[in-house]
Amino acid sequence: SAYFAGNPLTAKGLFKEKILNENVKSFILDTANSSLGKMIIKLANKNKIKVISVVRKDESLKELSKISDNCLNSSDKNFLTDLEVKIKELNPKLYITFLGGNLPTQIFALLPNKSELLVMGNINNELIQGFS
Fold this sequence. Notes:
The chain is of the alpha/beta class.
């Protein structure tokens, strides 16, 4: 799970295989304040790849802002509007999620055509709405 210790090999493997090998310039990552999320963000920073980091609490936003320039709180009333601005600015075509429910669908709907959704887990144990 994204909330436990987080395996550095998982972060490095994902980063190399999906982000570096596919020449990704920017991506969206939810559950970004988790151990695994922080590892992925640090690898992106090292490689000058932009990350739109999504969290769901103000405390997490404050903490993650120390390592991520593009943090958004999904609990904020303007979240989707703010996210749309960031998407237009950074043009991500990859969204990495650890969640089920409605949020992945709402985020993915804002991305350009031919974008990819990579589901790494489902910590809230809900079906991802809007996908078969």
